[in-house]
Write a structure and sequence with these properties.
The protein is mainly alpha-helical and 193 residues long. It has 2 domains: 85 residues, Rna Polymerase Sigma Factor, Chain: A (Orthogonal Bundle), CATH 1.10.1740; 88 residues, Orthogonal Bundle (Arc Repressor Mutant, subunit A). 78% of the residues lie in helices and 0% in strands. It has 9 helices and no strands. Helix 1 crosses helix 2 and helix 2 crosses helix 4. It starts with a helix and ends with a helix.
Length: 193
């Protein structure tokens, strides 16, 4: 029967080799399966998990582990190591095909113009107070406090109006969800500077 996470963490905290044995017995195979799903290669997955266990023991990182978070720590660490392995194996896998760049930028420009027009229309359709809050926060870059003072409302009201307005815009611009978030953050960053 496998040792509990509490037992494993207690043994690792004492730097007892039994802790590593129990950790290996309980988690080695599931972690290899996890890493193999990322790497699409069982032998590389075994290497990643073995390297992780060795590093964990040598750096004595096990001394700070908590039973409640042990499982998530193990899976997150192995995932990160597997992703690092992928990057080293194929550092150009994220590189763009140069022949596609011009067409991609044209598509991006068209999509950005379409998104901006849609967002502007949605902002214009907001109730007056919500539109005023959006203008103050995103167009002028005012703080919530300054917006509240200008409009003669509380900071909580500003927050509520802004949250509701952004939710409505997101809902109505669902095809542009990621771009909308970037747009609003960039606009706010540019106006605050």
């Amino acid at each position: 029967m496998a040792a509990s996470d509490q037992t494993i963490c207690a043994l690792l905290a004492a730097h007892d080799e039994k802790g590593m044995e129990h950790l290996f017995d309980k988690y080695y195979k599931p972690l290899v399966v996890w890493a193999a799903g990322i790497l699409n290669h069982v032998m590389q997955a075994e290497d990643v998990v073995q390297d992780f266990f060795i590093r964990l023991w040598e750096r004595q990182e096990g001394r700070a582990l908590q039973a409640e978070t042990l499982r998530s720590f193990l899976y997150t660490s192995v995932r990160n190591l597997a992703l690092d392995r992928l990057e080293k194996k194929d550092p150009l896998r994220h590189a763009a095909d140069v022949s596609q760049c011009e067409r991609t930028w044209e598509e991006y420009d068209t999509r950005e113009e379409e998104m901006l027009a849609r967002v502007r229309a949605e902002i214009a359709a907001l109730p007056e107070r919500s539109r005023a809050v959006m203008d103050c926060i995103y167009a002028e870059g005012l703080s919530y406090k300054a917006t509240a003072e200008r409009l003669g409302v509380s900071v909580a009201t500003v927050n509520t109006l802004l949250v509701n307005a952004v939710k409505k815009i997101r809902k109505n611009c669902s095809g542009f969800r990621a771009e909308l978030l970037v747009f609003l953050r960039v606009r706010r960053t540019k106006t605050v500077k």
